[in-house]
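#data-curation
PF: Archiving a pair of folding outputs for the training set. Convention for this channel: one message per protein, sequence first, structure tokens after, nothing in between. First:
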Amino acid sequence: MDGSRVIDDLGSAVLDESFPEVDLALRRGRHIDRDDTAWYGFLLDAQAVLETFYRRFGCELVHKSDGYFYLLPVTDQLGKRQLSVPEMLVGQALALLYLDPRTVQSGGVVTRDDVLTHLAGVMGTDGLMHAMNPKKRRLDERVAQEAVRARVAEGLRKLSVAGFIELGEGDSVRLRSALMRFAEPVRGTEAPEEALAKLVARGEVMLEPEFETDPDADADADADADAETRSEAEDNAGSDDTSSDDDYAMPFDEHEHDDMPWDSVSEDAAAKEAAGNLDSENLDSGDLDGEREDDPTDEEHE
């Protein structure tokens, strides 16, 4: 594709060979960055006409200076994709890793264990377990650790589908520029990296001004999480290896929101968290463990 051309009419944009895949990706909540060379170039070429096009569907085509596009719903015409609070915490931790000079030196690639270690280092082990198991007053350490691994792994999977990261071979994770969306709430502060680290350390989620919360989205998630993590702990009883590939083999099922752009947090407590008021008895944990009951071999949505 010639990067210098400009597509100035909708017909030409729709007939472009890139349009069908780009359109579907955006509607499914995918962030498209410079690494998506052809798609990103097409969006640059057709940005003006596509901005008008998507407004007819109640969405804004957003282009950030960090080098990525995404659809931001401003009405309910296409619906809205949500991330849970644990997934948002994972995203914020990944944004911190993205800003870390050591990650730059490694080519923007980290491991899943790096993510867990970074979260535990910033939040503390106990803080991390409570953030990922917010309704549990008493935590069985083994079950809680399994739940943390499950939630982090599912968070990585969901963030990968949304174009924030790329899951590589083994346990490698390549960080992408769209992760800077998690740093938007603290952008413009004197020390944005430090401000974001403080949010993660407190287990807080600060939302972008345009984000909305969905208080009813994940009401039954904790019951599912209890059953799932208890089952995992029983299955792993007698084994000292808690970092096997099975820990990360959680399928992600997109069927529920297959064509809904991601733009919000689905937690009842997200608004309270934004004010710095975590309530461990009222914090809903999201639907990710319930989704894990799907066929683990179904990887078509990755």
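PF: Second:
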Amino acid sequence: MLASVLCVKASSAVVDVYSLLARTRELAESPLRAAQAYENTARAIYEAEQAAIAAVNASEAAYDKVSLVHSDHLSTVLLI
């Protein structure tokens, strides 16, 4: 009899702990989603910054190439 009473109490305690953990999980869900959204936003900003840096580098390289062609053309014109 005592063993069955202890078993029922232990089972009840497990259910109580599980329900507490379920409630904790529910409460933590929203902040976890917010943290994930923040991480996604920070990653997107970093990637956008890297893309902008690459675009600036590409535009500067293109400008340098055009400037060299233009300055070579001017040198040729001036030599004539």
